[in-house]
């Protein structure tokens, strides 16, 4: 899957900027913050980047990788998400040494009960630890 296919699969108009942002996600295979992306784009049109990320999230291309840190990160969706719903119920691994965050597709969040009268909207599983590179 390349960036052009991803854009057309999600009914998004192809622009050079969108392609470049998606290429970065495809290359890194981990969650990226807006700052991570800015560093790779070599130009800091923050408003355009912010809007692009919002659009990608709305269309089911990327999801928020909740990792317990105070920096918002996004990661590519596995492919079943669309404009109607996201299905990213997997865990996110946050490395406490390098601060990088990874989607762990094999670990799914369990269905958790809430007290009577409470409504569960989302459940996040965060694994803190050291990634393969930092553990050695
Ligand atoms: Zn998704
Ligand atoms: Zn690490
Ligand atoms: Zn994820």
How would you sum up this structure, described in words?
The chain has 136 residues and is α+β, with helices and mostly antiparallel strands. The protein has a three-stranded antiparallel beta sheet with strand order 1-3-2. The protein has a three-stranded mixed beta sheet with strand order 5-4-6, with no helix packed on it. Strand 4 (90-95) and strand 5 (101-108) form a beta hairpin. 30% of the residues lie in helices and 20% in strands. The chain has one domain: Arc Repressor Mutant, subunit A, CATH 1.10.10.10. It has four helices and six strands. The longest helix is centred in the first third of the chain and has 13 residues, at 16-28. It is globular, with a radius of gyration of 16 Å. The structure holds zinc ion (3 copies). The site of one zinc ion (ZN) has 6 residues, from loops. One zinc ion binds at residues 95, 97-98, 100, 130-131, 133-134.
Low-confidence runs (pLDDT<50, min 5 residues)? none
| Overall number of domains | 1
Rg over CA atoms, rounded to whole Å, is 16 Å
- Main sheet? 3 strands, antiparallel
Write a short abstract of this structure.
With 136 residues, this protein is α+β, with helices and mostly antiparallel strands. 30% of the residues lie in helices and 20% in strands.
Q: Which features characterize this protein?
A:
136 residues; alpha+beta; Arc Repressor Mutant, subunit A; three-stranded antiparallel beta sheet; three-stranded mixed beta sheet; 4 helices; 6 strands; 30% helix; globular; binds zinc ion
């Amino acid at each position: 899957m390349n960036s052009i296919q991803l854009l057309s699969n999600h009914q998004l108009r192809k622009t050079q900027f969108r392609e470049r942002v998606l290429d970065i996600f495809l290359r890194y295979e981990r969650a990226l913050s807006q700052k991570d992306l800015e560093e790779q784009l070599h130009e800091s049109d923050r408003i355009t980047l912010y809007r692009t990320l919002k659009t990608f999230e709305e269309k089911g291309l990327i999801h928020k990788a909740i990792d317990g840190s105070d920096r918002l990160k996004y990661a590519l969706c596995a492919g079943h998400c669309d404009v109607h719903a996201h299905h990213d119920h997997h865990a996110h691994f946050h490395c406490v040494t390098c601060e990088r965050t990874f989607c762990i597709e094999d670990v799914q969040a369990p269905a958790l009960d809430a007290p009577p009268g409470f409504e569960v909207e989302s459940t996040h599983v965060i694994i803190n630890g050291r990634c393969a590179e930092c553990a050695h």
